[in-house]
């Protein structure tokens, strides 16, 4: 073929469409530059969009389509862990390099599929960081754990619960809320009556925003800690404005914007007038990873690509990435952020 | 002396505050055609519904003598889990409705086959694998349906949708359907309503034939006094939910209470 | 302490329940006239949330400062635009199906629901949106540490809902148009013969349903401050549940059903488990319908045989 | 046929009307006219198409060809509710009262075409005509007996102060006493100067009451003429009066 | 005269266009014209005007097309079409055996020509055929509006996933157990449901479906919660379809000494599924000609009349629920084995709605219709992939359009004709009493 096809799979429709959009934006921004610079080995890269709406059923269809119809050589995706898990099996069978920008569930790489890599962290890594942040930095021990009963959120909270248990701390509250709802007042009152000093929330903005706002409205001054899903600009509007974010912290990759390694990517995005949203960066980084592997191996063989990724670093939009044998990023650095009075995230401590 | 097939004893039926039947008692004798008449709203349909198990009488009891056994309708419909009005049909009472209730989007024959399901329902597998026994019962059921269509003069409509039939034919089909459950007692609620005089005459012959050829007892509600007077052996008159008269046609027709409440005219004028 | 927690949960439940009730009204009324479960209703509510936020943004762009004025004008404009939505949807997707099977409009409604969601997503983006806090502060009862509160916004919600419901109840029970609605519900063919413009009545009902959803949508938007194109789904199912709980077709039933559902959720979440609160709510629904097959205030269809 | 009507201009006129239910043709080139102040009856066997004829006036089903003229205007394409507002009322087959409304609300609905201004007055008149309804004014109509419902249906139609009233088998399922009463009421209504178009199975009563009549067979008008002459017609007597 | 007519038409069209434009502007204006950005907005009014203009122009075009001769004749045919309902066969129709044989052969040969993507789509389509057939028993035949059908689908799918995890069940044993287990769930649901009428039944089934999904989501220890549970791949006589044996057997390709391909697994699933679908189609076809199937339909038409004929409506409904549920359970097993992984997001209310759409679009009660509709509604979203994010939008529009085009479904229902066994049958049985099981 005279082009190299790369599939980009994620939720382009449905409840999580906003993330799919970000990943797509990031990937296409990078690939555009690569193509402009002559492509890989003189071949242009062609992107194929696959919408799985975060449904496993569609994820499998998309994966089969990528493999059999579009004959892609690599895949960025999928977004949700619950989509990545069934799809990874198909890519692995077909020998296609797969890099997910966002599936943090440990199972994704723990199943021993060689072709599976991720540019994001793992829930259990993030949980360890969160545990020590709450216990050691904030020095709080009465913790309420709230999740959204979804793969990402619950995975994170359960891992944290495990971490806390290892430190001998039991949560004062462990509850799951329902995605799509907006009224968490009952839960907030329950948090209040539990006497929690910190709330750890595993979930996404649509629920995190109202939860933060309602905590404020009911006059609770607990610390609100959450994961990398909060690294989105709309948390400010969603939570009702910067004044509600004073006690909010979230962990995310070490601020890519500050990392000198990411300067090129920053500039590239800025040139295109693209907002450096969290998953735009991870999408960008995933695309960089794949292109790097393709350029580094040249023979088009997936085995050597895997080998190459295990042995080389990639300078990416989220910092320098290196992988272990499972496909997880080595020493993925999570850093905690809080918000200044304009609602811009700043590294805490 | 013939036995009573059905005994209605002191039945009272209330709907909230409204008393639709008060202390109604009458007997239906084996092989008789008994007519139930009375002004609109007298409670005729309501007592029918009690007899056929669609309502549970608030007080009193209704007893059916069938195959040498007597069964209490009230007990049948209140049996736990399996109970219900369908047991009343199985005990031998069939009925038609004041407002026709056919399976409109099914064919005429299918309407009759459904009425025979008790004889034809084999187990699931025999039907799926078309066992010989299944085929035999199915053929028998179809033949029986055609027999009743012939009896009711509906043969040419056999494979039309029931809902497409003209009203008069729908009435007859409803009777044929009821007959397919092979009842001991058939309850007809205003079978002649909407029929013209010649059709009504035909209907009265059908009813007579049901009684004579098929050993059937008939209980009929009707406002057409011509029909009632010509076929009934026995008439029960209800007014305001109570029995005001009970006897032979001539006794009832001359009962001043009945004339005042219902007929409004003397008997001669009615039969003329 | 416990007392305040209980009081707080009651406040939470009642506020939530009122909103369920407002949205449930749309289901109940539409069901009443054309016996159809309007599955697109939740998404009409979602659209109204967007319209409310857009209106507010436009008002503040033109420098409107007064909060009561902003609130009232947002409410009015949102009701109007959403009402037109209700009207248009009925014309386009349901009225051509009049007189066909009962389920055809149901499927059409599902199609409309997908369309609305997708349309809003494409036009406005998938990300979460928000509105600034307009009214803050609360009435507090109790001590500095132990207290129950009702926010001013919650008070506004309750007042607005009560007013909306009172107007609606009056219209349905005591005006010509209300009687015509009920008549059309019971027997459309004969109503037309008596001179009722049944098409207009059906449209009216859709407009009323959409407008009450818009009241709900506006209040929710101001109270919770955030929404996205997907909020219609969960709210739709909840409100539908409330409508059935109260007896679908019955206006007071919708309110009662909403309140019951809201309170159940708040108390179960507060005292037992948030995880299983929906399981409990649905189980309660099944149990109530088992003993009252027509809902709490629903009138049984008369089975005069 | 329609030329016969030139003497007094017909109030309602069917000119070559046909109607279909899906593939079934229910009316075949029907020509019928009714002049103001007349009582005209239509008799025919079950399924002849009598009800269909009445319903096409209101456009359900729509006439597939031909015209239905009211005061000389073609109304066959008007929406149903507009037709009602022209002073035509129907007492439908099977009563069709509002089951869940009270008797009184049913009467209120009857005024839809003219508004509520005469309601009190007309209601009193109806209660005089049907004292039974007065007793039951707050009962849910669906729980009343057939006869009571029929009276309510007639009263409801009268509430619109119509000029032309269409009756579809008003005696169906009624006790003899009530049938008598209904026909008395029909006569009273006629005496008020209203035009009546009566569809009946009860040919005897209908022909005695009306001035002119039509006989319908299989969707076609087979016979028409003075009621008195039809009463003497041998075929009519045989088929519809049950006499030999 | 001619001119007057024309200008009248033009006036009418202009009015129509203006009206549509104004309505479209009110409806579309705010959402597509003013895009929210933070607490402020971005002006896209040009887009809104363009959209409203397009809508108005479309409306005018449609009106114009309909006012032409061809258009109006189309419209007439269209309205005729939708008016028709059920018809009875004449009894002379020939059963299309050659066509049937062709379909079966083509179906069996399909994997030989298709790649994995087409095969995957075909498997999904067949799963929905199965689901449609199951729900058709409940909704189409018995007339019970079930909005929680997905519950039984979930039961089947989780049976395989959890069964293999806890009990060591494999694909084949799950396939055998699933109908019974799902049927049992159907029975549990049926008891509270059967007292209810019409739409109350709908909400209770919806609630049941949600309860099942919520329990699957919340009961972390048992079901794996949102993370779901893996489902084992199928085996054939103990041979596995994985690259290396995992369930303690021999891999298929090693046994036959052929190179490994992931396709074998899908071939097996497809063939088994196809045969199961054929069997279910046959069973449903038979059921409709059996007393039980007829009773379901009678119950749909008039429950009171059924009771007056001695039909135990409770048991009859129960049987419909259970058989429908069983079919749904079967479909679930295939889904799980095809996905290799199940989690609650596959069993949302939307899934129930989609299955219902299949049944309604197919024509309530029509088996052929359900099959067609299932194929259309599963293949359509795949075809629409080229529309990218407009996919769902277009799908929604098509759903509405299809309903308006064929409100009674793709296939018209016909009723079988029956004839007596002999011409003199009507004279028989005169005094032969019916042997009724009392
Ligand atoms: N389900 C019900 N709920 C309330 N009242 C009822 C119900 N069924 C009947 N009634 C009342 O009981 C009385 C008797 O009604 P029923 O239908 O038995 O009269 P009927 O004698 O059959 O009259 P008709 O000859 O007009 O059919 C009526 O006044 C009616 O209002
Ligand atoms: N909704 C319908 N769909 C299909 N066919 C119909 C429909 N209504 C009536 N028909 C058919 O049209 C024909 C005329 O029916 P119509 O009801 O007008 O007769 P009718 O003279 O009023 O009879 P009846 O005395 O029984 O009231 C009948 O053959 C009937 O089967
Ligand atoms: Mg009666
Ligand atoms: Mg008629």
From TrEMBL, chain B:
GO CC term, one of those recorded: plasma membrane
Keyword Transport among record annotations: yes
Transmembrane feature ranges: none
InterPro entries: AAA+_ATPase, ABC_AA/LPS_Transport, ABC_transporter-like_ATP-bd, BCA_ABC_TP_C, P-loop_NTPase
Pfam families hit by this protein: ABC_tran, BCA_ABC_TP_C
Domain of life where this protein originates: Bacteria
Family (UniProt): Belongs to the ABC transporter superfamily.
A GO BP entry: L-alanine transport
Domain ABC transporter residue range list: 6-265
UniProt keyword list: Amino-acid transport, ATP-binding, Nucleotide-binding, Transport
Entry-linked PROSITE patterns: ABC_TRANSPORTER_2 (PS50893)
The protein's name: ABC transporter
CDD domains: ABC_Mj1267_LivG_branched
A GO MF term: ATP binding
Automatic annotation (TrEMBL), chain C:
GO cellular component: plasma membrane
Keyword annotations: Amino-acid transport, Cell inner membrane, Cell membrane, Membrane, Transmembrane, Transmembrane helix, Transport
GO biological process: D-alanine transmembrane transport; L-alanine transport; L-isoleucine import across plasma membrane
Record field: transmembrane: 12-32, 44-63, 69-89, 150-172, 201-221, 279-297
Annotated InterPro entries: ABC_transp_permease, BCAA_transport_permease
Membrane topology classification: Multi-pass membrane protein
Keyword Transmembrane helix carried by entry: yes
Localization: Cell membrane
Molecular function in Gene Ontology: L-isoleucine transmembrane transporter activity; L-leucine transmembrane transporter activity; L-phenylalanine transmembrane transporter activity; L-valine transmembrane transporter activity
PANTHER family: BRANCHED-CHAIN AMINO ACID TRANSPORT SYSTEM PERMEASE PROTEIN LIVH, HIGH-AFFINITY BRANCHED-CHAIN AMINO ACID TRANSPORT SYSTEM PERMEASE PROTEIN LIVH
Similarity-based family: Belongs to the binding-protein-dependent transport system permease family. LivHM subfamily.
Listed name of the protein: Branched-chain amino acid transporter permease subunit LivH
TrEMBL record, chain D:
UniProt GO molecular function: ATP binding; ATP hydrolysis activity; branched-chain amino acid transmembrane transporter activity
Family classification: Belongs to the ABC transporter superfamily.
Keywords from the named record: Amino-acid transport, ATP-binding, Nucleotide-binding, Transport
PANTHER family: HIGH-AFFINITY BRANCHED-CHAIN AMINO ACID TRANSPORT ATP-BINDING PROTEIN LIVF
Entry protein name: ABC transporter ATP-binding protein
InterPro entries: AAA+_ATPase (IPR003593), ABC_transporter-like_ATP-bd (IPR003439), ABC_transporter-like_CS (IPR017871), BCAA_Transport_ATP-bd_LivF (IPR052156), P-loop_NTPase (IPR027417)
Keyword Nucleotide-binding: yes
Tagged with keyword Transport: yes
ABC transporter domain: residues covered: 12-243
Gene Ontology biological process terms in this record: L-amino acid transport
PROSITE patterns per record: ABC_TRANSPORTER_1 (PS00211), ABC_TRANSPORTER_2 (PS50893)
From TrEMBL, chain E:
TM helices/strands, residue ranges: 49-75, 95-113, 119-139, 144-163, 169-193, 200-220, 266-284, 318-341, 353-380, 387-405
Membrane-related topology note: Multi-pass membrane protein
Domain of life: Bacteria
Keyword Chaperone appears in the UniProt entry: no
Listed GO MF terms: branched-chain amino acid transmembrane transporter activity
Main localization of the protein described in the UniProt heading: membrane
Presence of keyword Transmembrane: yes
Cell location: Cell membrane
Single GO cellular component term: plasma membrane
Keywords of the record: Cell membrane, Membrane, Transmembrane, Transmembrane helix
Protein name, per record: Branched-chain amino acid ABC transporter
Record organism: Pararhizobium polonicum
